[in-house]
Amino acid sequence: MKTLATLFFILLTTLSYAQHDYEPSAENPFGLRNPDAPEQLDDFKPLIGECACISERKNPDGTWAEPIAMTWTFKYIMNGTAIQDETIKADEIHSGSIRQFNADSLKWYVHYYTSASATPSLSSWEGTKKEDGKIVLYKPQRAPNGMDGFSRLTFYDISKSGYQWIGEWVDPLETVVFPFWRISCTKPEN
56: closest CA among 47, 66, 48, 46? Predict the structure, then answer.
């Protein structure tokens, strides 16, 4: 009986450890992509880590507000099968997202949260990485005048040195485009 208990303990310990192989750690502070995860997790690979960013939002009068300094950190979570990001802004309104790729629909599902308000259900966008390297996500959203459209979020100019991001409202044909938020990020030199 003692041998069975010891064997059970070893098996349980081994399985528990294996469930955390790709989580953030002292050795890998942003985690690692699980090799069993969809290859599309590599879409966000260049963003993994911490960037110094400038965030700018549109004022109600259509002008851009003063830039706000922020850090944007991306890391692997759920044992390397998803990605979480977090922003820490100088204005103390922080936010983040959980990003999961669905292999059946071949789409990213991104769930957003913010310290500005607690909500019973998270806003979510869906989308893909395009052939031109941009990652584009959409959420149905009406314009203030009631016109149908989408909130479109785009990562672009993605490189080892950083990336750009823009939030826009677009009509269904994407002929009317109204930018409402833009962020420019630079990775620290190693």
Answer: 66
> Which CA distances in Å does 9 have to 4, 19, 20, 33?
9, 15, 17, 28
Look up the pTM and report it. 0.87
Q: What's the pLDDT at 20?
A: 82
**Is the pLDDT confidence value at 4 over 90?**
no
Q: For 78-161, list the strands marked E by DSSP.
A: 82-89, 95-102, 107-114, 123-129, 135-140, 150-159
CA angle at 113 for the pair 108 and 116, rounded to the nearest 5°: 155
The fraction of the chain above a pLDDT of 70, given in percent, is 89
Over its C-alpha atoms, the chain yields an Rg (Å, rounded) of: 20
Inter-residue contact 115 to 93 (CB < 8 Å): yes
